[in-house]
Known about the structure:
Helices cover 74% and strands 4% of the residues. By secondary structure, it is mostly helical. Strands 1-2 form a two-stranded antiparallel ribbon. The longest helix has 33 residues, at 122-154. It starts with a helix and ends with a helix. The mean pLDDT is 79.
Amino acid sequence: MYNYAIYGLVFLIIILIIWRRMRIGTKPIKGNGIGILIPIPIFLLMCFLAVSQQKGAFHVWYELAGIIFGFAMSIPLILATNYEIREEGQIFAVRNKVFIYTFIAIIIIRILLHQYLQMLGTQTEMMILLAVASGYLIPWRVASYLKFRKIKQLA
C-alpha cells in the first residue's frame, strides 16, 4: 500500500509539471529572471537534509557517477529550453514539445534506475537518485537563467 501511495504522489507531481510546462508561453517572465533560480536553493536544502540524515549510505563513486549521468540528462533539457521577446519587449518561454518528451524520458530512466538500484539498499539508492536529480536540475536551471539573461540584454 505504501509504494502505491508514493507512486501516486510521483505521478501527480509529474502531471502537474507537464501541465505547467504546457501553459508556458501564456505569461511573460517577470523581473530579472531570479525566479528561474529559486528552486535551486530549495532543492539543495532538501538534498542537505537528506544527506545529513543518512549514516553510511554515501558512496563517493556512486554519487559522482549519478551527478555525471544527471549532467548528461540535463543537456536535452537545456537545448529544449528557450526564450523569446514578444509584444512590448516582454520575454516569454518558448513552448517546446521536445521538452515534455525529454522530461518523460528522464522520469522513465529514473524509474528504471530505481528498479536496478534496489539491490544496493534504500539509503544508497536514495543518495544516487538525489545525485542524478541534482546533476540535471541544477545545470538546467542555471543554463535557463543564462539564456534568459542573454535575451533580456537584447530587449
